[in-house]
Amino acid sequence: MTVTADDGVRLWASASGQGEPLVLCHGGPGLWDMFEDVAEMLGELTTVVRWDQRGCGRSERCAGPWTTDRFVADLDAVRQHFGLERMALLGHSWGAQLALAYALAHPERVSTLVYVAGTGIGPVDEWRPAYEENLVARLGEDPERLARWRELPEGDRERAVLQWSAEFEDRARALDHAGRMADPWFGINTECNVALNAENRRRPGLYAACRALDLPVLIVDGARDIRPRSAVDSLERALPRADRVILPDAGHLPWVEDPKGFREAVATALR
């Protein structure tokens, strides 16, 4: 179905399952919803609402603007479209940052926040170098794979699959998991990615805002994520009502590598 934002941009959205609503915010920036597995595993617990962020995936291609405030407004358009007074939010990676930004802007419209595999509220330079080192190390387990990744252009499907394969702890199945992420392939919005990542480096006042957020928050991490999980420590300290679940054998997409542990954690938060 189509959700129309307040500036007329059309956003792809979908709802399935039953129960109180849970709205999902996908990662990126510049990617699309890859939460089909999550919707299936949670469909007996909640009505799962999925959507593609503006200019991405199945949503209308547009010229932005590529700002967190604009994406927060788009998320609110999704909420209004489905007639939700309050909603639980689950965000993954960049989507975790977006879900947190929405909760800070509109806490009265959020019942629970599930923050999955995000990168916290500290400076990007505290975790980015380690992530890049870990990415190259994972890809370098196969020197030909690393060389191929380096020669392909940004935004290329094969390059994305190779890079995403580093996100999984199960190295034997990593390429298969990454290939599923890219099927179907909608193309990466690199302009959106660059703009929002640049904005994400400038977030003054975020710690104080999180200290004042009176909402239950569940932080879910895969312990084997190549982004240092210590990046999230400052967010956990700031939030007054935070719980944290670390799944020991999972990487950046914990529902793929530990579906049972992930479902149990989210079900507990929704209850």
From TrEMBL:
The keyword Hydrolase applies. Keywords: Hydrolase. One of its GO terms (molecular function) is hydrolase activity. Pfam families: Abhydrolase_1. Residues 21-258 form the AB hydrolase-1 domain. Belongs to the peptidase S33 family. This is Alpha/beta hydrolase.
